[in-house]
Description:
The structure is a single chain. Helices cover 38% and strands 21% of the residues. It is α/β, with parallel strands linked by helices. Helix 1 runs parallel beside helix 3. The chain starts with 8 loop residues before the first helix and ends with a strand.
Amino acid sequence: MSGGFRPDPQALRLAAASLRAAAVADPLGDARRLAEHAADDAAWQAALTARAARQPVSQIIGGRDFWKHRFRVTRDTLDPRPETETLVQAALDLPWQTVLDLGTGTGAILISLLAERPDARGLGIDISPAAAAVARENAARIGVEARVIVGDWFAGVAERFDLIVSNPPYIAAGEMAGLAPEVRDWEPAAALTDGGDGLGAYRAIVAGAAAHLTPGGHLAVETGPTQAAAVTAFFGDAGFGALRVIADLDGRDRVVLGRFGG
């Protein structure tokens, strides 16, 4: 460990045992990570208690690494996942100078994109005022100029963009009970599920995208691994062409991408 509190080996073993008893997937690794971010034994014990309650490590320590930066996360935001970097890479392979991120959450997608293209402009929108505040904080701390507003999808957005990206809620209501406690009990439900079949957000995004894209602009969305065919059909029905499905590093369908007009 490079810093933080340094427990003795016996304390570390006991901590790992307590997390193992709580069915934490990586008890020893999590015990070590929490120690690295604790100021003293008391803080470490409090963190271990939170982890035993299955609170995600990222929420306990207040941050998660994504792409090339560390993002602040809270209970009001979705924890940025490694597979979402597939969407960032797909977007960076496209030509664009303006980008709209729907359901921005921590701002991880938007901020990562703008950090790679300092001359570009971007807007993030989220229905949660608390999440929007976290995104603004992340942008300021990372040093990226990004506008973030509160709204429901395209509501209040008048301009057009070269690129629209989104990682929307795509878990079906019936699948929520089977999620890991770290997700089901600690992350905001509105960022996880549409309360229906898991495709509602895609219907709304695809329906509104054409009115907010420049000619030849692109729409790129993250999907669940079984949803790519349905979402691709939505794209096609709405007039998008050059349709592509991009797999993540585990080989699962992860991104649907299309071009509108032009």
